[in-house]
Amino acid sequence: MNTTEFLTIASAVCPDRTALIFEGKRFSFSELNDRANRLANALAGLGIRNGDRVAILQVNCNQYVEAYYGIAKSGVIFVPLNFRAKKDELIHMLNHSETNTLLVGGRYVDMVNDMRPDLPLVKHYISTDGKREGMLDYEELLATSSADEFIAEIDDEDITILMYTAGTTGLPKGVPLPHNSFSVYMLQNVNPVDPETEETNLLTMPLYHVAGIQAMLAATYGGRSLAMMRQFEVNEWLETVQREKANRAMLVPTMLKRVIDHQDFAKYDLSSLRVITYGAAPMPFEVIKKAIDLFPGMNFINAFGQTETASTITTLGPQDHVIEGTEKEKDKKLKRLTSSIGRPMADVEMKIIDEVGNDVPAGQAGEIVARGPRLMGGYWKDAEKTAKTMTKDGWLRTGDMGYMDEDGYFFLAGRGDDMIIRGGENISPEEVENALYAHPAVEEVAVIGVPNPEWGQEPRAVVALKKGETATAEELIEFCRERLSGFKRPRSVVFIDALPRTSTGKILKRVLREQYGQP
User: Fold this and answer.
1) In contact, 104 and 58? CB cutoff 8 Å
2) pLDDT score, position 501
3) How far from each other are the two terminal CA atoms of the chain, in whole angstroms?
4) What is the H or E stretch that residue 216 is in?
5) Which of 175, 272, 216, 185 is nearest to 60 (CA)?
6) In angstroms, rounded to a whole number, what is the distance separating the alpha carbons of residues 374 and 321?
7) In whole angstroms, what separates CA 418 from the centre of its chain?
8) How many CB atoms lie within 10 A of CB 456?
9) What is the mean pLDDT of the chain?
10) Helix (H) or strand (E) holding 101
11) Alpha helical stretches, state H, 46-169
């Protein structure tokens, strides 16, 4: 089953049901399907063919969802771009993917125009927010194209999304995800569309993130109304849940903390919510404990996955959030809430391996590896990174260190590649270090993650200055402002005389984390 069939079936079973709710606008499933078909026919009219790449740089909006389905119906590969990425990252992603058409949101038009000389392969620029000089107009394209069902030869194993993820070098890696990566998950874990059952999902996760894509596809497959926010804002979230009587929501820990700490939390009617899924970053225990108290009877789900896994591969389910039983059972559940990512989904194999790839027994730490039909087979046009990430027998090396207990629950114990996760966003320490190395006073630098109750982690720079040079923490943070995305720049700086190193010159980040890794 390919993902375009989710929309075809939903628009046939419940054509008049609301599919999308966005900033006062509502679109039924039949309207969403018509607009997706119009886009598919428009793309064909521009000469875009099966297997081509079409990218989008935009925040969440109804056009984003329409674009996915229209592009997918064409047999074309959808490339969602992180709107928080810097220009050089975006240029890399567009050229690496060989994108020939770019959909552009209004706030990114000026930046894209500046990038044009560096994008020789992009032939068509389409503005999604009204007419712009030198760009095609999205709404005009739809208005002048047919709403007839677009039929393309699409195989379940054809790539539908090319999603980029941050790497330890700072350059994003392309992850090709076939239709099957998503349809297998939906068929096994989501109830299909039912004319008698209506639900509303509240989507705050960005659609350039795999969790956002998974939520969007699940809503369509299940015939659910999708209430979308451009970006998370706590007052709007509370108001939308109350107004739309939302039944499901997904939040990263930072978002959940802002919701439950809001001064007017008790004034909102949030009783319609039945399921809150969280993930994408470590969940502070005090946050989930408070949330359980404030949402009695809520079905909390901790979902763990990566871009490379296409969708969730482990869950800590609702029963794991009910702390009752004997004292021993309570202690075990509390420990799981603190650091467990749950147990693998039915179609996923997981285990822990040591440095040379041997399996390790329960309780012993190592790297978490996973295997299954939904996981990627390799990175886009990067055999070297693929060889480092995929074992010869098909196991994906997640880069996460952890262990498994005697009951089959997996626990995280840090990342093997030192990746920092702030508010669900991956930050490559090496990228931040490279930016700081450009400062004339910096001799050497290492960036580590520091626990933060709101964001999960914050980047901290440990810096040794050149002899005779001076610099302040504020100066170095400001220096990064023009060189890095806002979420990537360090929030604190520690100055030391020299970084600890091994005999071979490798920086001992473990030592730095032990000495400087606390708030």
Assistant:
1) yes
2) 76
3) 48
4) helix 210-221
5) 216
6) 27
7) 18
8) 24
9) 92
10) strand 101-104
11) 62-73, 87-97, 109-115, 138-143
Q: Is the dihedral angle over the CA atoms 331, 334, 340, 342 positive or is it negative?
A: positive
User: Can you read off the two tokens belonging to residue 464?
Assistant: 């040794």
Alpha carbons 29 and 20: distance in angstroms, whole number: 8
- Torsion, Cα 259 261 264 269, to 10 degrees, reads 40
Angle of helix 62-73 relative to helix 29-45, nearest 10 degrees, comes to 60
User: Which residues of the chain are modeled with pLDDT < 70?
Assistant: 166-170, 281-282, 414-417, 502-506
Of the candidates 312, 307, 394, 300, the residue with the CA atom closest to the CA atom of residue 345: 312
Element (H, E) at 249: strand 248-251
Ramachandran angles phi, psi of 68, nearest 5°: -60, -55
For 16-88, list the strands marked E by DSSP: 18-22, 25-28, 53-57, 77-80
| Cα separation, 98 vs 58, whole angstroms | 19
Task: For residue 513, give the nearest of 439, 452, 440, 462 by alpha carbon.
Answer: 462
Sorted by where each starts, the structural domains of the chain and their CATH numbers stand as 4-231 (3.40.50.12780), 420-516 (3.30.300.30)
Q: Six-digit token pair at 265?
A: 């939390």
- HEC string of 340-382 equals EEEEECCCCEEEEECCCCCECCCCCCEEEEEECCCCCCCCCCC
pLDDT value at position 443?
87
Strand 314-316 with 299-304, pairing:
antiparallel
- DSSP state, residue 267: G
Q: Measure Cα distances from 288 to 238, 255, 416 in Å.
A: 18, 12, 25
pLDDT single digits (tens) 308-339: 999 899 999 999 999 888 988 888 888 888 77
pLDDT of residue 504: 44
Q: Are 276 and 249 in contact (CB under 8 A)?
A: yes
Token pair 């927010």 in the structure block, residue: 129
**Cβ pair 316, 301 in contact under 8 A:** yes
Q: Helices 4-13 and 210-221: crossing angle, nearest 10°?
A: 30
Query: Tell me, what amino acid is at 502?
Result: T
- Distances from the Cα of 203 to the Cα of 146, 415, 462, angstroms: 29, 28, 37
Length of the chain: 519
Cβ–Cβ < 8 Å for 43, 68: no
Phi/psi for 479 (5° steps) reads -60, -35
Query: Do 220 and 247 contact (CB within 8 A), yes or no?
Result: no
Instruction: Give the tens place of pLDDT for each residue, 212-252.
Output: 999 999 999 999 999 999 999 999 999 999 999 999 999 98
DSSP designation for 390: B
Q: Residue 54 carries which side chain, given as an amino acid letter?
A: V
Q: Are 313 and 344 in contact (CB under 8 A)?
A: yes
Could you tell me the two tokens for 64?
A: 């984003």
Helix crossing, 4-13 with 179-189: angle to 10°? Answer: 40
Q: Is there a contact between 288 and 334 (Cβ–Cβ < 8 Å)?
A: no
